[in-house]
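Following up on my earlier message about zinc ion. Here are the inputs again, as you asked, copied directly from the submission form:
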Amino acid sequence: MSGLVDAAKARLGRPILLTLRPRADRRRDEPGRCSACGHATTFAFNSWVIPDDLRTAWGAPEVGDAYTRRESMFCRNCCASLRVRRFSDVLLSLYAPGMHSVAALVQDPAFRALDVAEINTIGSMGSLHAQLARLPKLAFSEYRGPEGLGEMIDGARNEDVSRLTYPDASFDLMLSSDTLEHVPDFRAALRESRRVLKPGGRHLFTVPIVATRPATEERAALGPDGEPVHRLPPLYHGRGAGIYRYIPVGADMLTFTEFGRDLVDIIRECGLEPELFEVPGDAVGAEMVFGGRAPG
Ligand SMILES: [Zn+2]
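Thanks, got it. Here's what our run produced:
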């Protein structure tokens, strides 16, 4: 997709996500300060962000509800979702405990000195990418998935996250958000993280997880011809419900993996020291953020 189309889509996409929603959703908006952009603003609920078939596959209504909040509650200033703000909160707690936004963090000399990789644009309509792009040493790449559907932002390189082209021990910090579930072999991707991280470096990431589910579930794999083989009915992330069935605002990528609570063990099996950042009262796990630290 061309940069011009991307730019147009971002301009159109923000007001769409903030305004095109059932009227009753307004009652669930909340005031607050955005930890991505730093603005005092309103967070806009949008009950159409999760597709109906995904909700059905999850079964328990509280899972669908928790993910609807996670994937909406859009900052009226930068369009960061609750997921992106939660990711921002953890980033701040680890790298600049006194700061209140990633907008401030990226101006911090100590943070600017780090070698940071952003894998796959982070944030609805690039909301967190817009901040991270201010880092002088940011290595930014997109992941298009085996279907080649992922979107490309101007200036990004395209990387297969299970076979990165970066040299060993390149990064202090890798960041990805809701990407590993679209990778046919996410374990290979975690092992690649370990390879390209410096000793003691960290891959901080989110994935959709149903924390009440003990085991990670492989829904699809790649066949010998490179086409997906489905073990369970295919689920896609990208389209939503309501009007968003017809105007997807993200790439409609196949979900290869649905993660369960054992993800922490899997991170360890892939050679990284797992970290789990939870929010009290979040039984579903929708606001969990994960880390994997390279030994050293
Ligand atoms: Zn914001």
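One observation from looking it over: The radius of gyration is 18 Å. Hope that helps, and feel free to reply on this thread.
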